[in-house]
Amino acid sequence: MTIASLDPGLGPAMLDVWNGQTAAFGSNQTVVDKVPPDMLHLVDPHWYQFPPMNPMWHGLLGFTIGVLGFISIAGNGMVVYIFTTTKSLKTPSNLLVVNLAFSDFLMMCFMSPAMVVNCYYETWVFGPLGCDIYACTGSLFGSVSIWTMTMIAFDRYNVIVKGIAAKPLTINGALLRILGIWLFSLLWTVAPIFGWNRYVPEGNMTACGTDYINKSWFSRSYILVYSVFVYYAPLLLIIYSYFFIVQAVAAHERAMREQAKKMNVASLRSSEAANTSAECKLAKVALMTISLWFMAWTPYLIINYMGIFETAPISPLTTIWGSVFAKANAVYNPIVYGISHPKYRAALYQKFPSLACQPSPEESGSVASGATTACEEKPSA
User: Which segments show compositional bias classed as Polar residues (predicted)?
Assistant: First the structure.
């Protein structure tokens, strides 16, 4: 008894599809075969050695990016709406949170639909100009998000570490920082268009990014310098800020406990949680922020470094993971910087009661819960 005899309608068709895919992977077909002719001049010869990717990967990538896009657009759109329509949340510090959510919102608006369409056709279908726009927006909004996170860390450092001596952030100061972030990011974004590196299809042929396969050191230098100013510098600044933030809060809590002992009371805080100290809560926020940073951008950086230093072979399948992790950053940013904010959750509950994200009184009184907008928690700043 043959397979076909078990299902005379479906069996032969499935066998034909399987045999066709097997033949393709065993033939001279490559991952570049479906690329439109007007895009071939942008494809590096490196990719011609790889057979076509299994359609399953294109389907999974398209589905994943589609889901991430929907969650990010809804989540970041909600953050922007709540923060801009709630009077108690209209503060200078929260302008940075809104800028972060707005950047992530635009990133997925530009990139998610295009990626889904390309995954459906299993290649890039929007032409060279579309490739430039796609890669430009990814670089621009990614850099804006990274440096906005850095400015948020600076704001926390200024309020928590410097305390009363800190110069409070004003509306004009926040807007000036935001303008500087966008101009600085735009500078790095347009550099490849003017000849310092270039934007090309990545190995899976459904996305575009920097050319990390090019052997020219002039082209490689862009990725090296870019990584210094858009990865290492903000990362080190965030770590520096949170190190001293946690250290300052720990010292403050230690002083509070010592004072409580002298006064022969259990605690000077009426709403302090029994088993969770403020410095532990703040340390968790800091650890989460830095960990998510690594999860989002390190895979993409590693892929770029693998290309320019030729430390390991890069396959089309490898390039998928950089895209997924980097775009996932736009999903959990609103969780870290928005939903973890008790006043945001209270406003969300008022405007959308069905979401039921109202904070408990303990959360509202927690020192660590004000990490995203510490200046609201400390009027002296």
Answer: 361-372
Write out the two tokens for 247. 């250290």
What pLDDT score does 27 carry? Answer: 58
210 SS3 class = strand
Q: Tell me if residue 201 falls in helix, strand or coil.
A: strand
Measured from the Cβ of residue 244, the count of other Cβ atoms closer than 10 Å reads: 14
Residues 6+ apart with CB under 8 A from 68: 108, 112, 324, 327, 328, 330, 331
3-state SS, residue 265: coil
Distance CA 368, CA 378 (A): 12
Using one digit for the tens of pLDDT, what is the confidence trace for 330-368?
888 777 766 677 788 888 888 888 765 554 444 444 433
The Cα 25–Cα 146 span in angstroms is: 40
Domains in the chain (CATH in brackets) are: 31-352 (1.20.1070.10)
- The candidate with the shortest Cα–Cα distance to 245, out of 119, 367, 91, is 367
- 3-state percent breakdown (helix, strand, coil) of the chain, nearest 5: 75, 0, 25
